[in-house]
Amino acid sequence: MARKKSGFKKFITSRGFRLILILVLAVLAVIGGVCVINNLKEVVSVTYMDELAGDDFVFNGNGIITYQNGYFNYYDLKSEKKNKSEYIGAADDQVRIAAGSEIEIVYTDISFRIVRLKRNIEVDGIIEGCSCGENFAAFYILGMNGNHRIEIYNASGDLLRSKEYPSSVITSFGFESYDSNVFYTAELMTVGQDLTTTITTYDLGRNSINGLLSVQGMIVGKLFFTEKSIFAVGTKQLIRYDRITNKEIYRVLIYGYDCSSAAVSGSNVIFALTAAGTESPAVVKLLSVKESDTASDTFVTVSIEPGSYFGMLNGKLYTIKGSCIRKYASDGSIDGSTSIEGSIDAAYFLSDRYMLVHTEMGYRLLKAK
Questions:
Q1: Taking the model in full, what pTM does it have?
Q2: What whole-number distance in Å separates Cα of residue 223 and Cα of residue 199?
Q3: What per-residue confidence (pLDDT) applies to 190?
């Protein structure tokens, strides 16, 4: 006589159980397996950097700079023979670093050192920030008289420019890129109830002013440069200026949004926008504009996991969460992903091609594909 199957055995061999199992596996894949599914299209190459240490990093176009335990450290991305370490001695919590392609700066509140010169240069006041271009360094200093000023030094430690701002506020300053000598300031002034932001660009290689732009009625917080354009990101609008003539070309309304990063993608420039004041956004809006007489602007909404690190790399939006790095296509869909070993607890977007992430396994350098 054949033995009857128990109720449990009947259930686990039934069609209904198989359907339930398929549904459960599908849900698990959506929740935690997207990286596995999308690994068919890798989005980054991974380089192990176990020797890297510290929690403050600067990219100078060729390598990564850190400061830890009193040492200035440089890690070249192409040749380990170019790596170097130099003892500075200042306590880690007192030191900040900055670099351009041909200049490296270690600075405290009251002094700075151009690393290759091996000597400290003191300033009159408190250094609140530093930005470097190819071979120039600009310092934002709060003077003893209560006024802010910007001092610019060359790679030999010579003071080239010093300008005080007694009745205005610098909302942004810096260089076009780490390998450029084009320097800019955005200066906010109030006349009565009206706001005016004056943008000034300098060519320090020629010691000349390139452009003087005026924006009425709003604060300009960031500037982005391309070969053809200067984009000013204001509290109300994104403005495109022609790089050669300094003429305003068009404006796009972005009121209520902050811009975290931007990148050139073919004939378009893409800006990553999030709702103003949002610390952990679940949505990123990608604003795409043309570098022509009209913006031909389009907006694409991308849903991301709250708590993700995100930014523009190689003209695309990348997000980082857990062990997964995702790339998004121009229509907002996921265009591939890569999973790395360990859980990512810190991420640094170094340039338009590189980002550095940290897991319990150590640091990993990721290059966008």
A1: 0.86
A2: 9
A3: 74
